[in-house]
Amino acid sequence: MARILDGNKVVIFTGAGISAESGIQTFRDSGGLWNEYSIEDVATLAAWKKDPALVLNFYNERKMNICIAEPNSAHMAIAALEKKYNVVVITQNIDDLHERAGSSNVIHLHGEIMKARSTYDETLIHDIGNKPLYIGSKCQLRSQLRPHVVWFGELIMNDEISKKHISNAARILVVGTSLSVYPAANLLKKASHHAEKIIISLDIAKKPYGYQFICAKASKMVPNIIDKWLYGKFLG
Ligand code: NAD
Fold this sequence. Notes:
By secondary structure, this protein is an alpha/beta fold. It has helices at 16-20, 39-42, 45-50, 52-68, 73-80, 97-101, 159-168, 218-231, and strands at residues 6-14, 86-91, 106-108, 111-118, 125-127, 145-149, 169-175, 196-201, 212-215. The strands form two sheets. It has a six-stranded parallel beta sheet with strand order 3-2-1-7-8-9, with helices on both faces.
């Protein structure tokens, strides 16, 4: 059955690169986080079981860094796109820079660092804002709280709703991701052949079929593309 595209819908799919110019480190670039830490020590369930204090300390540091960062021109341009389009932001980021820039529909695939959840009942999720988590930070059931983030080996969040949005969007703009983290990167394959599909990044592992790759900094190129969509002629 032919798929019906929503001509007014834009999906923005982002990764750590969009927040790099706000001062939040990416994982894989040189100088990125994995040069300082090993994944196994801080971002897996095994790490949490072995040394939860080290894991909490790692995420407390990430949160401190995120709290002092400000959205950059790429985040702001994406929020401005809502003036004309139905915009869905799907992000691999755990930061809240899209929300702070003013985007009203943000889906997090890998969780949110401003939230914590119970280790006894994962449906108990608390908005803790900029507060750090420590051993002894408890939920209402008196169980330890953990960061509400997806660790390597855990299931991503919101993948079904993300697939739906990607599959009927008329435009898809991918920003600042290496597309090397699965299954998040696979979601982009759900896009229609007829959708306009652009990737802006400094580097990608593998270009998905049908996407145009623009090697550029997010802060420069994202506002350019968005200006064209907002004020140029309708391309859909
Ligand atoms: P990644 O580190 O694998 O890739 C980052 C990509 O961004 C690279 O391809 C790089 O070339 C590009 N990039 C760097 N600076 C850029 C710029 N100024 N403009 C445009 N592109 C730029 O990150 P990923 O693909 O998001 O996947 C890794 C995981 O990292 C995700 O699961 C995410 O949860 C996590 N992460 C999130 C944050 C955050 O919340 N800000 C920070 C670090 C890592």
